[in-house]
TrEMBL record:
Native source species: Thalassobacillus devorans
InterPro entries: GGT-like_enzyme, GGT_lsub, GGT_ssub_C, Ntn_hydrolases_N
A Pfam family the protein falls into: G_glu_transpept
Cited Gene3D superfamilies: 1.10.246.130, 3.60.20.40
Name under which the protein is recorded: Gamma-glutamyltransferase
Length: 536
């Protein structure tokens, strides 16, 4: 089991690790965490709690996720680990040629073109059918209540809502009007502490609950999505929705210092974290926060990331296999490139040599790591009128370069930034963890794992420790409280260190771990956001 050197958090946060015995829910929104805890207390298990929390998050944190987003999950049940990929492919009628005909040289960030098939509702249904104890309708009721009766806006959500308002209030075109009508009906975004409700969102959730998501993929909601897409030049059709199914997959892993670190296989980017840890596993870590350790972390992350950005796309279209990228031989090859000076990373050749995260656990030993996203902020800016369905812009990641592995193709899943993580040891679960935040996510996973495994920090301290983020080339961004003497020493090794004031850009995470001897759950929730961990 993980050994924590201290119960206290040595960093800037005043939060302490939370403990519980019968169950635990951790996520970025207190009201969503409470929704999951209420389900646990009504007899639900960890998976039930996760579904309720995820649905509630589409209401109380629409700045990061929505009904029209994607989802991934890693589930530990009765000694077995399961993966769920509920990311959706591109529409069957889209192609590089069709997009270029419209005058684009690269995939746009907003509008209907980057919208792929939303997978979140299918994830809720799939998890409920396979592992749930309570009815699907009961899972979605807390979210419906929040949308129907209203809830007070939290501070960070208010900040992110303002950023979204600035972005979409400047957009011209009829297709963006439903966003304003839904999220800024009074000509402004809601402020922290103000009550917000969304009757259309509530009605949509009721329809999804009553039909077990069939209305979204085959019925009246699918018709509305199809109509809106046709009206505004999109390629998404009802036929695309009707044929979509989420995929149950086998999670992939590497062993880091005796712990198995699990991620979802591509098209998810969790493999980047595994590649970096595979490289770092060959180094001895003897000092918490030494310059050499930071330097190696940065170099390993750069090498893993450039490989990921080159190769990761839908399984079977990568040009290399996950086994090749995660092999010990390839890790050794990449590790050999790390010297005393910062390098400009280049992809290797293994053949030659706006997101929300939640974690939940129950007294039966079930645990789940779950992540859900609209990609960036509110996503595409496309809101299906009178439904509250905010559509993601995941297709923005596609390349229009015919020679790129992640090139746009009909019915293809793109490179995906959202990744749930899980730790186990000697065949027993340690627990779920995750750090949301776009391209920060694999970097956050590596830092959190090392904080717990190498430095023996408790879950809250592991989350609160100062973070770094590789941006490009030799540029590394660090948080304001990142130690100055370390930043200066890294600069002398050739890294271009930039201190960034906005801590939200360094991710927002949650962790739950179980003591195998006592069954006691210990949890941490991100201090960079409005998060909360509830123990029972």
């Amino acid at each position: 089991m993980l050994k924590f050197d201290s119960l206290y958090n040595p960093s800037f946060s005043k939060r302490m690790t939370a403990y519980g015995k019968r169950g635990m829910v951790a996520t970025s929104q207190p009201l969503a965490a409470q929704a999951g805890m209420d389900i646990l207390k009504q007899g639900g298990n960890a998976i039930d709690a996760a579904i309720a929390t995820a649905a509630a998050l589409t209401v109380v944190e629409p700045t990061s996720n929505g009904i029209g987003g994607d989802a991934f999950a890693i589930v530990w049940v009765k000694g077995d680990i399961h993966g769920l990929n509920a990311s959706g492919p591109s529409p069957n009628s889209i192609s590089i040629e069709e997009v270029k005909k419209l005058g684009y040289k690269e995939m746009p960030e907003h509008g209907m073109l980057p919208v792929t098939i939303p997978g979140a509702p299918s994830a809720w249904k799939a998890l409920n059918e396979r592992f749930g104890k309570l009815s699907f309708e009961k899972m979605l009721q807390p979210a419906i209540d929040y949308a129907e009766n209203g809830f007070p806006i939290s501070p960070v959500v208010s900040q992110l809502w303002e950023e979204g308002y600035v972005t979409f209030s400047e957009k011209q075109g009829e297709e963006f009007k439903p966003w304003s009508e839904t999220f800024a009906p009074e000509g402004r975004c809601p402020k922290a502490g103000e009550i917000w409700s969304s009757p259309h969102h509530a009605s949509t959730l009721k329809s999804i609950a009553e039909t077990k998501a069939a209305s979204f993929y085959e019925g009246e909601l699918a018709d509305k999505i199809d109509q809106f897409s046709r009206q505004h030049g999109g390629f998404l059709r009802k036929e695309d929705l009707a044929t979509y199914k989420p995929e149950w997959v086998d999670p992939i892993r590497v062993n880091y210092k005796g712990y198995d670190v699990w991620e979802i296989p591509p098209n998810g980017s969790g493999m980047i974290a595994l590649m970096a840890l595979n490289i770092l596993d060959g180094f001895e870590v003897t000092d918490n926060g030494s310059v050499d350790t930071y330097h190696r972390q940065l170099e390993a992350m750069k090498l893993a990331y450039v490989d990921g950005l080159k190769y990761i796309t839908e399984q079977g279209k990568m040009g290399v296999s996950t086994n090749e990228l995660l092999s010990e031989a390839y890790a050794a090859t990449r590790r050999s490139l790390i010297d005393e000076e910062a390098l400009l990373p280049e992809p290797g050749d293994p053949l030659a040599g706006g997101t929300v995260y939640l974690a939940a656990a129950d007294e039966e030993g079930n645990m789940i790591s779950y992540i859900q996203s609209n990609f960036k902020g509110f996503g595409s800016g496309m809101v299906v009128p009178e439904t509250g369905i905010s559509l993601q812009n995941r297709g923005w990641s596609f390349s229009l370069d015919e020679n790129h592995y992640n090139r746009l193709e009909p019915g293809k899943k793109t490179y995906h930034t959202i990744i749930p993580g899980f730790l186990s040891k000697d065949g027993s679960p340690v627990g779920p963890f995750g750090v949301m935040g776009g391209f920060m996510q694999p970097q956050g996973h590596v830092q959190v794992v090392m904080n717990m495994v190498d430095y023996h920090l408790n879950p809250q301290a592991a989350l609160d420790a100062p973070r770094w983020k590789w941006v490009s080339g030799k540029t590394i961004e660090v948080e304001p409280h990142f130690p100055d003497h370390i930043a200066q020493a890294l600069s002398r090794k050739g890294h271009q260190i930039v201190k960034r004031v906005d801590s939200l850009s360094f991710g927002r995470g949650q962790i739950i771990v179980r003591n195998p001897e006592t069954g006691v759950l210990a949890g941490g929730s991100e201090s960079r956001t409005d998060g909360l961990v509830l123990g029972w």
